[in-house]
Amino acid sequence: MATTKHDKRLSVLDGGWGAQMGPDLMFRQFEEGYDEGPDNIALICTHQSWGHLRNIVGEKPVAGCLTWTYRQLMRAARDLALVWEGYGIKRGDTLVAFLPSCAEWALGFWVAAILDLTFVPLDPATLVVSSPGEQEYPLELLKTSIVLVSNLRDAYNFDELYPDLTKAVRVKVVCHERVDSFFRGWINLEPPETYRFRVSGAGDKPYRPIPKERVVADDRVAVVLFTQESPKHPPKGCPLTVQNIRTALVNQYILPQQRYLVTCQSSSSAALEAVLVAWKRGAAIVFPGALFSAQTTLSATEIYRCTRLVCTPPQLEELIKHPSRPQRDLSTLESLSVHGGLVSAKLLAQGQHALQTQWVSSSLTVTEGFGALGWRSVSPEDRTLDSVGTVMLGSLVKVCSVDSRNIRVLGRGQEGRLHVGGDAMIQGYLGGESKEHFYRDSDGNRWFVTNYLATMDNNGLVRLTTELKVRLAISLNLATLLHDRLRLYTLLMLVQNS
């Protein structure tokens, strides 16, 4: 991405160079975290027992709930990768996980990194539908070879929703319910082959299989997230490449001692960002439950001495008003990061006061990429609650006129549509959907047109003002209301004149 100087009177900023091009795949991101300390805690799942998946982990658990070190997670992922290689899984295949936040979700992500697969986390609730085809994702556009689901009901629903993938999928796994007999080709996560393929004396650290033919690693799609404008619109896939992820992570600096408590949905960009940052730096991820509960979140914060909380605005509201909060010792909690739409400064201030964090921030949450906006300073004094930050390394940002036929950059302080670009953003949706949201400028930089209206001040701080689709919905509703009233008035006039 070229670095360009812009007129400071205009609402446009260039963050400069981000992550350098390199041969490293996604495996290297997790390997860096492993190297920070193999015996550091990598994952805590408070809702899963210490003995869960013990046959795969192969070591003694270290706590009452499921708690894995980097050494345990690496070894388990390596052994499972060897099993799935035996089933014919190859580099470039896709692993789809219809799972909540859990150990199996984490394990699947690590296996995908080791085997250089594309990881696709999906909302498990979308498998609970009233009629086939109602919530279908365009998985036929991906080389789906592995599917993970929670229970037999979800397994059955997957087969009904995606009949065309039956022959293509090589491994279908039910994670949280025992498959007593051969059920439509579904198996459990701990097949007998786990032991047959386990390599004795191979050491703790797994290798990454080196393919005979290498491609440019930065162009490999590491993760696909899905976004949906509304229930009436079909889901759109966002293919995040290794370069997208490496660029987003280059701006994140944390210590290995940090513990991230993540309550966002497992299929969200907020959850993905949190786990990637933590596992690249050797920190721990804490999942307090498959579903959000204010009580279990507050309890997990206290018991496991969490330092960072990543949540959504509705979740924060529940945490603030929960009756058990004042009795909890939340002294270890240093920061609060709130993701999802427009977040009011008032709510952030209330959250900071209630949870007693040193600093709090909201983020530009778009599935098309993350890390484009943020804070370059870790000092709370340099942050404002009403802003989502400024441009980060490897990214571009500008505020433009709303008229798509005549896009022009606005002056500082003027409200317009927010465009973000650079190496952290995807190049387009899966299958070429909604191409109007993406374009390249005369310098060759690629841009994504967000659904947010925003302003940029003289210090380069961006403030989100309106979610455009919300404003459009209000306008449409108002137009419908006016139309109905006009129609009613016309009918009344006809009655009076008859």
From TrEMBL:
SUPFAM superfamilies: Acetyl-CoA synthetase-like (SSF56801). It comes from the Eukaryota. One of its GO terms (molecular function) is CoA-ligase activity. Residues 65-430 form the AMP-dependent synthetase/ligase domain. Keywords: Ligase. InterPro entries: AMP-dep_synth/lig_dom (IPR000873), ANL_N_sf (IPR042099). Pfam families: AMP-binding. Belongs to the ATP-dependent AMP-binding enzyme family. PANTHER family: AMP-BINDING DOMAIN-CONTAINING PROTEIN-RELATED (PTHR24096:SF149), LONG-CHAIN-FATTY-ACID--COA LIGASE (PTHR24096). This is AMP-dependent synthetase/ligase domain-containing protein. It comes from Aureobasidium vineae.
